[in-house]
Amino acid sequence: MKKLSSLQSKKFYRVKQPSHEFLCALCSAPRQMRYSKHLSIQNYLQILLLTLTASYFLFPLMKAKVVFLLFPVWLIFELGNKLLYRRELPCPYCGFDPSWYRRDVRVAKKMVQSFWQTNYPDLVGQKEAAILEQDPKSLGIQPITNSAPEEAENLSAQG
Ligand SMILES: [Zn+2]
To answer: What is the pLDDT confidence band of residue 114, given thresholds at 50, 70 and 90?
Structure first.
């Protein structure tokens, strides 16, 4: 129970200059993300600046071919951004990853389960114990058959 109260009082993470804000599709926690799926205008300016700087230094060696420096620089930025975005995407509160949910629901489910298993093992244990404690007989038709004759008597008394 102590763990549960610390979970409830947990503050939500804040991100400097978030690119977008949304609610987690699974736990509805407010989410902020710094990285976006696509490169920003700022990133493109950085690519340009870096390419120009590299061309300045490599021009004596490569001459006109420095134009092609743009592509590896661009690629590095794209891959780096994608990596950071993917790393930031899973919900820090419940472990839900929307990109994996789109690709393979089973993988997304496993990720959430392992997230809870590693972060709140005692809570997961409590839930499993609660499921096992439920007696299938108590959910059966036993009470209904007991009350049935009484109901019949009441009905006959009313009639
Ligand atoms: Zn979540």
So the answer is: very high
> How many angstroms does the Cα of residue 145 sit away from the middle of ligand 1?
44
Query: Tell me, what amino acid is at 123?
Result: L
In the chain, which residue ranges form alpha helices assigned H by DSSP? 2-8, 41-62, 70-88, 98-103, 105-119, 121-133, 142-158
In the chain, domain spans:
13-135
* Rounded distance from Cα 28 to ligand 1 centre (Å): 6
pLDDT at 150: 52
Q: How far is the CA of 23 from the centre of ligand 1 (A)?
A: 8
28-56 burial code (b ≥16 CB/10 A, e <16) = eeebbbebeeebeeebeeebeebbeebbe
- Give dist(CA 93, CA 26) in Å, integer: 10
What confidence tier does 68 reach under pLDDT thresholds 50, 70, 90?
very high
Q: How far apart are CA 115 and CA 7, in angstroms?
A: 14
The whole-model pTM stands at: 0.68
Per the CB < 8 A criterion, the answer to whether 32 and 24 are in contact is: no
Q: Which residues contact 92 (CB under 8 A, 6 or more apart)?
A: 13
